[in-house]
Every structure is written in structure tokens, then in C-alpha cells.
Design goal:
single chain, eight-stranded mixed sheet, Dienelactone hydrolase, hydrolase, Dienelactn_hydro
């Protein structure tokens, strides 16, 4: 399926400098069907913003029939351009990550944008890698996110995301904020030095104890194994292709078609009537 690219500069409330967040949008393009509508996916980037690998990943999702929104997560500190995959860029990205304050608002704005688009059905999923994996997990707190697939999410087990390095992600999971929400998939490489086994075990047990509808996948891979550029020898193309197909099965099943209300919801509606 053909795709087209655009962007929207959306006003924010939490940016201290009053700058908008740029949200890149990649949409299916079917010239003979100008009124076609598709489900949406928010794709959260790693610490380098929307780089070539992130854009290609998002483009692949769009070409499967999804409107994809990619927020520029560091709008609090600089413009929307990608940060280089080098030592200085890595230091800059990690420094910004430790100061983030607007990440939940950014998620809300990204979902709001997708829902507002004429070519989107309003059925929304989320995914992301590294920092973006954590943001995709937090996106699942929004009931409009019907499925979230998180690749090697960082800082979840240590609760060190953002300003003050004291996020409440797992605390909210324990509180039940995901229990009645959509489907969640967590994917980790067993050789990922950013998320050691004890951290993965903590995330898995927290999700299971909270009775979250979730899948937990551990594969023989390192951190950033889906990144096809500057991966430091960690990119596994075959494994990436397999897990991409797994992700699309989740999206196709949860947001790719409108199944109507759940059986339990139907019973409640009938009882009220």
C-alpha cells in the first residue's frame, strides 16, 4: 500500500517555552478512494526522536493500512529534527530523557490528533522502542488505546523516567489503571543490558498480579535489535520481521476491525434497558 507523509504542529500547555509539538503523520494513500478511513497507531521514538529507522518502522505500519502519528518527544528542549546516532547525540538524548515533563500530555495530543483526522476511524493502538517503549506502555493508561506493543521499554523497572527520575508507571499498574484497559505486549531481548532479568521479572509479575491483559515476550537479542541503522551490530532483521508480524496480528485483531461492544458490555446495556 502506498503511503504519504505530513506533519502537524500542535500547541502544548506544558512546554516552558510555549513551543508546539510537531507530530509527523504517515498515512495510507489509495488514490481511487479519497474517503478511505483507517485505524491509527501512535509510534513513540527512542531517545533520538524521529530518525530514519523510526520513520521506516512507522512507514511499514502505515503501509499495512494504519494512520501513524510520530510525536517529537523532545519539543521541550529543541526542534523536531532527529538527533544523530553518535556519542554527543546519545548524551544529549539521555540528558533530555531525564528532564522530560510533558510526555503524558504529548501522548494525549497524539491520540487527539489521530481521532480528529478524517482518514482515521478513531480506533487507536500504540507502539514504541526503548524510551518509546515506556511511553507506549504509559499510553495504554488512556482508554482510547486498545492495544500497545512495547519494544525493550527502558526505565520501567527502575521507575526513573522523566523529570525527577521518579515515574509512577508500575505504581499505576499496581493500582489497577491498566486492568480494564486494552491489550498490552511487552517485548525484551534477554541480552539487553538496559533491562536486566530482575527488571524484566518485576515488570512481568506486576502486570500479572494486576491481571492486565498482556503478553510478555523474551527473545535472544540485545537492546535496539529492531533498529536497522547504527545498531552497533545488534540489529536482527529476521527476528524483527517475525515480531513485526506478531505486532500486526495484535493491531489487526484489536483496532484493525470494529468488533462492536464486548459481550459483557452488551449484557449491561440490555439490563439497563
Amino acid at each position: 500500500m502506498l503511503i504519504r507523509k505530513s506533519f502537524h504542529d500542535v500547541p502544548t500547555k506544558l512546554d516552558p517555552h510555549g513551543r508546539p509539538i510537531r507530530i509527523f503523520v504517515i498515512s495510507p494513500n489509495i488514490p481511487d478512494y479519497p474517503h478511505a478511513r483507517f485505524p491509527g497507531v501512535v509510534v513513540f521514538s527512542e531517545i533520538y526522536q524521529v530518525t530514519g529507522p523510526v520513520e521506516r518502522f512507522a512507514g511499514q505500519i502505515a503501509s499495512q493500512g494504519y494512520v501513524v502519528a510520530c510525536p517529537s518527544i523532545y519539543h521541550e528542549f529543541e526542534g523536531p529534527d532527529a538527533i544523530p546516532y553518535d556519542v554527543d547525540g546519545t548524551d544529549r538524548g539521555n540528558n533530555y530523557k531525564a528532564q522530560l515533563a510533558a510526555y503524558d500530555e504529548d501522548t494525549t495530543l497524539s491520540i487527539d490528533l489521530l481521532v480528529s483526522l478524517n482518514n482515521c476511524t478513531g480506533r487507536i493502538a500504540a507502539t514504541g522502542m526503548c524510551l518509546g517503549g515506556h511511553l507506549a506502555l504509559r499510553a495504554a493508561f488512556d482508554p482510547r488505546i486498545l492495544a500497545s506493543v512495547c519494544f525493550f521499554a527502558t526505565d520501567v523497572h527502575s521507575a526513573t523516567l522523566g523529570k525527577g527520575k521518579s515515574d509512577d508507571t508500575l505504581a499505576r499498574v499496581r493500582r489497577g489503571d491498566l486492568t480494564e484497559n486494552g491489550e498490552l505486549v511487552m517485548i525484551f531481548g534477554k541480552q539487553d543490558t538496559h533491562v536486566p532479568r530482575v527488571g524484566r521479572d518485576l515488570i512481568r509479575s506486576t502486570l500479572e498480579d494486576a491481571q492486565v491483559t498482556s503478553s510478555f515476550v523474551e527473545v535472544q537479542a540485545q537492546h535496539a535489535f529492531i533498529r536497522d541503522e547504527h545498531s552497533k551490530g545488534r540489529w536482527d532483521a529476521a527476528l524483527t520481521r517475525s515480531l513485526f508480524s506478531f505486532m500486526m496480528e495484535v493491531f489487526d485483531r484489536t483496532v484493525g476491525r470494529d468488533l462492536g461492544p464486548k459481550a459483557g458490555d452488551i449484557k449491561e446495556i440490555e439490563h439497563v434497558c
